[in-house]
Specification:
The chain has 189 residues and is α+β, with helices and mostly antiparallel strands. 24% of the residues lie in helices and 24% in strands. It is globular. The two termini are 33 Å apart.
Length: 189
């Protein structure tokens, strides 16, 4: 586990802006992404869509890739935002366990996971974005729902968490510097 926990940047959860917080935590920088920049990415996705949505009064709030009031950004916004920064997102093939992810790969910037959540006594079902990142040689859980980053003791503990997430309807994505690798982790070449 890395030393210097005070130096690790960690944003806390507000509304449904977990993707915004996950990206800033992943990049270890306040305002690496802003609400405005992610909204702009989401709006560009709508304009680039050949099917262009039909406008309704609800379109002011509920948009195809996010909610303009609370955030709640989808995977398309994550992919486009990372590509805009020269990163690529690789969707983990859940048929392969977490052991197929090389946590010591020099191209691996971090891991973004999307998990199902229930809030308010189970009345509200949604999904939540979480960033994991290797900092100063140690892996950290930078979940915006946590009060502070949680360090993992080793790569085995990271894999245990990822295996748990995979078996409980979570999705795992590796964030890498641009490369020519296959689009899925663990996919045969």
């Amino acid at each position: 586990m890395a030393s210097g926990l005070n130096q690790i940047y960690h944003e806390r959860q507000r509304l449904q802006f977990c993707l915004l917080h996950s990206l800033n935590n992943l990049f270890q920088q306040k305002d690496a992404f802003t609400r405005e920049s992610l909204n702009s990415v989401a709006e560009k996705l709508i304009l680039d869509d050949p099917k262009n949505e039909i406008w309704t009064p609800f379109s002011l709030v509920f948009k195809p890739h996010h909610s303009s009031v609370t955030g709640n950004y989808d995977i398309n916004v994550l992919i486009a935002a990372l590509e805009g920064r020269g990163k690529s997102l690789i969707w983990h093939d859940r048929r392969n366990g977490a052991s197929s992810i090389d946590l010591n790969d020099g191209l691996l910037m971090g891991i973004v996971i999307n998990v199902p959540v229930r809030r308010y006594g189970g009345l509200w079902k949604s999904r939540h974005w979480i960033a994991l990142r290797k900092i100063d040689g140690g892996w950290y859980n930078l979940d915006s729902d946590l009060h502070s980053p949680q360090g993992f003791k080793d790569c085995g503990e990271v894999r245990e968490l990822l295996d748990y997430i995979i078996t409980h309807d979570g999705q795992v994505f590796a964030d890498e510097l641009q490369s020519t690798r296959p689009t899925e982790i663990g996919k045969s070449s």
